[in-house]
Amino acid sequence: MSIQDQIQAELKTRNAVLVAHYYVSGDLQTLAEETGGTVSDSLEMARFGKNCDADTIIVAGVKFMGETAKILSPEKTVLVLDEGATCSLDIGCQIEDFAKFCDQHTDRTVVVYANTSAEVKARADWVVTSGSALKVVKHLKEQGKKILWAPDKHLGNYVQQQTNADMLIWQGSCVVHERFKADALKTLKAKYPEAAILVHPESPQSVVDLADVVGSTTALINAVRDRDEQTFIVATDNGIFHKMHEVAPDKKLIEAPTMGVGADCESCAHCEWMAMNTLENCLDTLKTGKNEILINLDIAKKAKESIQKLLDFTA
Ligand code: 13P
Ligand code: SF4
Question: pTM higher than 0.70, yes or no?
Answer without folding.
Answer: yes
